[in-house]
Amino acid sequence: MGHQVIIFDFSLIRGLWETRVKKNKERQRKEKERLEKSSLEKIKQEWNFILECRKKGIPQSKYLKNGFVDTDKKILNDYGKTPQLQKKRALPDEANKEKDKFIFHLSGEQWTEFPDSLKEQIYLKEWHVCNTLIQTIPAYIALFQDLRVLELSKNQINHLPVEIGCLKSLRVLNVSFNNLKSVPPELGDCENLEKLDLSGNMEITELPFELSNLKQVTIVDISANKFHSIPICVLRMSSLQWLDISSNNLKDLPEDIDRLDQLQTLLLQKNKLTYLPRALVNMPKLSLLVVSGDDLVEIPTAVCESTTGLKFISLKDSPVETIVCEDTEEIVESEREREQFEKEFMKAYIEDLKERGMCYLQSTSCYLGYKCRNTIGTLTFKRISNISLNCNCLLH
Question: How far apart are CA 379 and CA 139, in angstroms?
């Protein structure tokens, strides 16, 4: 008895497969077209284009037409060929080499501690250390009496040594997105400090009173931590111009916040504020105020009056989906990444606002707006959908 031979008609299977592939490609094409036409994709393209223009030193007037961004690629190409930019790129190598002698750079996850040779280079004026696994700052940092810039962002640093108070020439201290839980009182001895960035450490709850001695500080960023109130030492920094205390646990602001009479920018978004004190009206130089509108019920009427010249921005906090994960370190890391992205976006957004010199009143279908109703000296917000009225503010 012979063998049975089973013959399949592969043309049918091939036809079914080709039909499925064709439908899948069609779905991908439609999805791509939908994304290209969506407003979010357009906004993303515009922001990327603006950042590229800024990197190349292209003035805003070149890519803005009637307030809208012109994303013509010729702008980037043509400006790159101008003699002005070529001249800027043609800096003498000798000058750059001379400058680099005083700057220390270190990055990469292969670094778990500072190199031993660093202690011999006490003439350095700047440290730029980022994206490493370094956990501690060596005590010999006290020897670097000429150090002016200490940039230590995105590492694993878990504490600041008391020797940091010996850096009398220090102007900039950036230890953002590390693992700090506290700050030593000795930092208050850095009397020439002008910029202090402690953002993204996620665990700092208070600052020592000794930081009140930092009378030269103009910029303080303590966002993405666990502050329940603005530290008293910050209120005593008489030269402060920029304060970012967003993404904390603030429920109210101190009534004497107006003692910061030099403050120009106050970022308060992603807190639990329900009202703003009237003292904000008494801050003559305050030009930019950013809050989250989710819990905000009342603000002083004068804050929204156009005569004050204050740009008042009320942001809608987007709910973040919580993913159940056994490893809490992964959750913290994802929060840090999100905070870092939001900070970069806000920085670019604020810079763009300042360049344009104006404040827009907007409402979009993906956010809740607010309807303003005058009461005695305040504005009470009632939520309704997709409407924004009667404020000198920008709603997103």
Answer: 53
First to last CA, the chain: 81
In Å, how far are 131, 154, 199, 208 from 176, measured between CA atoms?
A: 11, 6, 5, 18
For 125-155, what is each residue's pLDDT tens digit?
Answer: 999 999 999 999 999 999 999 999 999 999 9
Report the predicted TM-score, pTM, of the whole model to 2 decimal places.
Answer: 0.68
HSE-CB at 136 with a 13 A cutoff on CA atoms is 6
Strands in 368-374's sheet, in edge-to-edge order, are 298-300, 378-385, 368-374
Burial 129-152 (b: 16+ CB within 10 A, else e): bbebebeebeeebbbbeebbbbbb
Query: How many Cα atoms occupy the beta-carbon half-sphere of 23 within 13 Å?
Result: 6
More reliable by pLDDT, 271 or 53: 271
Instruction: Please state, in angstroms and rounded to a whole number, the distance separating the CA atoms of residues 156 and 151.
Output: 13
Say how far apart CA 371 and CA 390 lie, in whole Å.
Answer: 8
240 with 262: CB under 8 angstroms? yes
Do the Cβ atoms of 168 and 192 come closer than 8 Å? yes
Helix (H, G, I), strand (E, B) or coil at 330: helix
The tens digit of pLDDT for each residue in 279-315 reads 998 999 999 999 987 788 888 887 877 566 788 888 8
Lookup: tokens for 303: 């804050």
Cβ-based burial of 161 (10 A; exposed 0-12, middle 13-18, buried ≥19): middle
Nearest Cα to Cα of residue 161 among 191, 203, 190: 190
For residue 393, what are the β-bridge partners?
Answer: 312
CA distance 237 to 249: 21
How do beta strands 393-395 and 311-315 pair?
parallel
C-beta neighbour count of 392 within 10 angstroms: 16
